[in-house]
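Customer escalation, tier 2.

The customer says the design service returned an amino acid string that "doesn't look like it belongs to this structure." They asked us to rerun it and document both sides in this ticket. The original structure tokens are below, unchanged.
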């Protein structure tokens, strides 16, 4: 299977590809030419709601990680964690990869966001 071939999932949800590619973002979350910050320190992994988590969920969904559909609400929950872990593994990054490195890979070719500490 190539990066562009996809498998069918029910209800028209994006299919997961075998190897993550870096598609351009399909969803404009801010105005043209403007970037929304994704704050590493505000990812809400501690349970709080965050726009930064919402951006991570959006991007995982764009890349075909269907587990995130359970969580697309700005809270870092089980579906987001499963999708994030699957993306990290599929991208060939080690289990102990720095969060910034994983986010750089996840948001590659996404002009909507800027990753900040």
């Amino acid at each position: 299977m190539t990066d562009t071939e996809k498998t069918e999932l029910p209800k028209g949800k994006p299919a997961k590809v075998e190897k993550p590619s870096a598609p351009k973002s399909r969803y404009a979350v801010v105005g043209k030419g403007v970037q929304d910050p994704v704050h590493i320190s505000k990812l809400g992994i501690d349970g709080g709601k965050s726009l930064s988590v919402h951006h991570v969920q959006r991007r995982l969904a764009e890349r075909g990680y269907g587990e995130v559909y359970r969580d697309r609400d700005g809270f870092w929950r089980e579906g987001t964690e499963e999708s994030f872990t699957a993306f990290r593994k599929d991208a060939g990054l080690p289990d102990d990869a720095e969060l910034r490195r994983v986010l750089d890979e996840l948001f590659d070719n996404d002009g909507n966001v800027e990753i900040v500490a």
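Tier 2 assessment: The sequence is consistent with the input. DSSP finds three helices and two strands in the chain. The chain has a mean pLDDT of 76. Sent an explanation to the customer and offered a walkthrough call.
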